Amino acid sequence: MPLNRDFIGREYPAAETYEVSRELIRRFAEAIGDDNPAYVDVDAAKALGHPDVIAPPTFLTVLGFRYSDAGPITDPDFGLDYSLVVHGEQRFVHHRPVRAGDVLSVSTSVVDIRDAGRNELFTTKTAVTAGGEPVADLFSAIVSRGTAARAGEPA
Amino acid sequence: MTTRVRYDDVTVGTELPAQQFQATRARLVQYAGASGDFNVIHWNERIAKSVGLPDVIAHGMFTMAEAGRVVTDWVGDPAAVVEYGVRFSTPVPVPDDDVGTTLAVRGTVAEKLDGNLVAIDLDARVDDSKVLVRARAVVRLD
Fold first, then answer.
1. CB-CB: which of A48, A57, A87 is closest to B84?
2. Which residues contact A145 (CB under 8 A, 6 or more apart)?
3. Hey, are the CB atoms on A34 and B1 less than 8 Å from each other?
4. pLDDT digits (tens, 9 = 90+) for A124-155
């Protein structure tokens, strides 16, 4: 079943902030096997000019899962079947590094939904700020396999 | 911010040190916990195969994170990364053994931009297949 295109343009500000801790950053860095000291060693991070340890460039992927219950993905009216979903594209634009101690405000909007052959492509933008200061923008394209309106028609 | 590589020392075509990364089942479980992505296709072989996948597959974001290490290890300070984007072209199956799947990543300086910015194109492969396309990081160098 096709996705509900009425969702284009809708914005979902997260009701709660996301608090970044040294331990969350450490756990993420360990999971990707990255021993860069800037992620775990406060003195090493300070030597680079940062006030505290910083997060790896893809760390903010955690936000999508933290707030998934408040966005379109789990809204029955949107019509997304999660078992048909694959990640198509991802892009991070960093205005400054994420640091331990950050209290992040997160808002996701649905940028576009369109057919891509038999599939549908669903694009979101997530704006991440801390105390009003831009931290990062995340652009994500999700592929919904075989749900395009014309997918069921003979070729 | 302090980068190990200087803008003036970089030319288009400069190759970053290539690296290989292992994706194992244990690693995917660890990544699921750290990222919050508990999609069953990343840890349950029975369900992965039932939806038409060859095996359990790595999280796309795990592959993206590993590929990015070629860039952050090169610059030293990960804060140098101002932009990083990829398109996921092929799933990365991860077998139930102790070796896992080897991801081979190369990076090349593609463009020198204003403001001490440098664009790096990444090539990430499993065997001979590209698993990421249009993988590009932009870093700000000293």
1. A57
2. A84, A85, A86, A118, A119
3. no
4. 999 999 999 999 999 999 999 899 987 766 54
